[in-house]
Backbone:
């Protein structure tokens, strides 16, 4: 019998590498990558009503209210597998997800020290098409220009020091407690998120291939 496609959640501090890793893992497992932050930024850029309501919360580094998140996610989580990145972020969202689907198969928690996530976020630059760089670890060949499409690189508004600090506070208060929520369900895979991105991807995929409840074969 064919096994169901994996349903994974990435849960980690801002800048820990959720998007970088979730994209690669989704590609490797051939399931959709659903990135809440990207969905929000697309709605903001398109100037939709939901985007306009979300923007001030994002600029302040606060969570966007659940009614907006739920409406933006509607129809994106189907019956098949997925890699969720940036959702759920608090207990209410985790419970909503439990109601919507019959549990997740694995929750990847990336461990990265706070000074390292601040360093990564401070040096993050991206182009309008979403290609992401890190000025120290993965700089563009030509300063300020995307290697892929030549478009100008910019810094995310919420990567300013004061906002980074608030995002980290919100993570500690609202999101980190979900590790316990999912540990009680036996689906947490804690992975060292330090070192280069390729090494982190290998660690995650090794963990998913290993025997045990959250593993994917
Ligand atoms: P979101 O876009 O999800 O932001 P975040 O969770 O703060 O995460 P980041 O995108 O900053 O970091 P990341 O962990 O994905 O790291 P990345 O791979 O980019 O959300 C933004 C906002 O939207 C929130 O603050 C909130 O307001 C709102 N929001 C989103 N979801 C919500 C929800 N469910 N409910 C309510 N509100 C919500 O990597 C970071 C940098 O490091 C990059 O430059 C990258 O190139 C680099 N890097 C990655 N891996 C490595 C490595 N191994 N070594 C060196 N550099 C690395």
Residues:
């Amino acid at each position: 019998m064919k096994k169901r496609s994996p349903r994974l959640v990435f849960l980690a501090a801002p800048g820990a590498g959720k998007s970088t890793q979730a994209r690669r893992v989704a590609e490797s497992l051939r399931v959709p990558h659903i990135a809440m932050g990207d969905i929000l930024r697309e709605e903001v850029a398109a100037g939709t009503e939901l985007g306009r309501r979300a923007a001030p919360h994002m600029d302040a580094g606060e969570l966007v209210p659940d009614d907006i998140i739920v409406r933006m996610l509607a129809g994106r989580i189907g019956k098949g597998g997925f890699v969720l990145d940036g959702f759920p972020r608090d207990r209410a969202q985790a419970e909503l997800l439990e109601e919507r689907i019959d549990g997740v198969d694995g929750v990847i928690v990336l461990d990265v020290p706070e000074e390292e996530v601040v360093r990564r976020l401070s040096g993050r630059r991206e182009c309008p098409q979403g290609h992401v760089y890190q000025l120290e670890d993965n700089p563009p060949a030509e300063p300020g220009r995307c290697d892929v499409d030549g478009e100008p690189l910019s810094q995310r508004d919420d990567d300013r020091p004061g906002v980074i600090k608030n995002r980290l506070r919100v993570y500690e208060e609202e999101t980190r407690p979900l590790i316990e929520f999912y540990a009680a369900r036996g689906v947490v895979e804690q992975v060292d998120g330090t070192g280069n991105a390729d090494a982190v991807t290998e660690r995650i995929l090794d963990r998913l291939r290993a025997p045990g409840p959250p593993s994917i074969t």
User: Anything to note?
Assistant: Residues 16 and 76 are 24 Å apart (CA to CA). The chain has a mean pLDDT of 93. The chain is about 45% helix and 15% strand. The radius of gyration is 17 Å.
